[in-house]
């Protein structure tokens, strides 16, 4: 699998997690949903930069 395909799958997984958390936990809470989404994106970005990015 190419690096672009892996990145696309990684981004799709991140989107799925964000949407899932929004629907399951924070449907009617705007500020909490925004904070959770930012946190999820930061965790995914840290994981990507630590383990998946090529040197």
Keywords:
84% helix; 55 residues; mainly alpha; single chain
H-E order: HH
How many domains, as an integer? 1
Which ranges are low-confidence, i.e. pLDDT below 50, for 5 or more consecutive residues? none
Share of β-strand residues? under 5%
Number of strands: 0
- Report the total helices: 2
Secondary structural class:
mainly alpha
Helix % is over 70%
What integer is the average pLDDT? 91
Calculate Rg over CA atoms: 13 Å
Shape: elongated
Biggest sheet record: none
Distance between the termini: 18 Å
Overview of this protein structure:
With 55 residues, this protein is mainly alpha-helical. The chain has one domain (3-52). The protein has helices spanning 3-25, 30-52. α1 (3-25) runs antiparallel to α2 (30-52). The chain is elongated. The two termini are 18 Å apart. The relative contact order is 0.14. The model has no long low-confidence stretch (mean pLDDT 91).
Give a nutshell description of this structure:
By secondary structure, this protein is mainly alpha-helical. It has helices at 3-25, 30-52.
Question: What secondary-structure arrangement, pairings included, does this model have?
Answer:
Elements (H helix, E strand, L loop, with lengths): L2 H23 L4 H23 L3
